[in-house]
Design brief:
Largest sheet: 3 strands, mixed
Number of strands: 5
Order of helices and strands: EEHHEHHEE
Radius of gyration: 15 Å
Low-confidence stretches: 109-118
Number of helices: 4
Number of domains: 1
Helix content: 25-40%
Distance between the termini: 27 Å
Length: 118
């Protein structure tokens, strides 16, 4: 079993003709098999959205990249922005990489994937 606390999805541009979605996920309980989770996410996206699958088939969209982040990253980010409470939420989908750049500034790689210190 896994539990997701929060997440956001940003575009990831690989070259001029293709890209992917980068999922930045904070888990409360991480999946036992991270690679299987990514594969399951990928298959789920394809099965729920025929346009997504067609973009994959014509090679304009690659397999999603998933980045695991440390607990409370999103909470601390909202707190830093003075946006805690009611109507303020982490954006689920972003059209640009602004939020990813904020988080990427403090990426640290370890054996379990990418972690973020905020």
């Amino acid at each position: 079993m896994l539990l997701v606390n929060d997440y956001t999805v940003v575009p990831l541009f690989m070259d001029t003709s293709s890209g992917a979605h980068q999922w930045i996920i904070e888990f409360e309980k991480e999946p036992d098999n991270f690679e299987y989770f990514v594969a399951l996410l990928y298959e789920s996206l394809k099965s729920q959205n025929s346009d997504y699958e067609s973009k994959i088939n014509d090679c304009s969209l690659k397999v999603p990249q998933v980045i695991k982040v440390l607990p409370n990253l999103f909470y601390n980010w909202l707190k830093f922005k003075n946006k805690l409470g009611g109507q303020n939420k982490v954006p689920r989908l972003c059209n640009d990489r602004k939020i990813a750049k904020i988080f990427c500034c403090s990426f640290k790689r370890n054996s379990t994937g990418f972690l973020i210190k905020f």
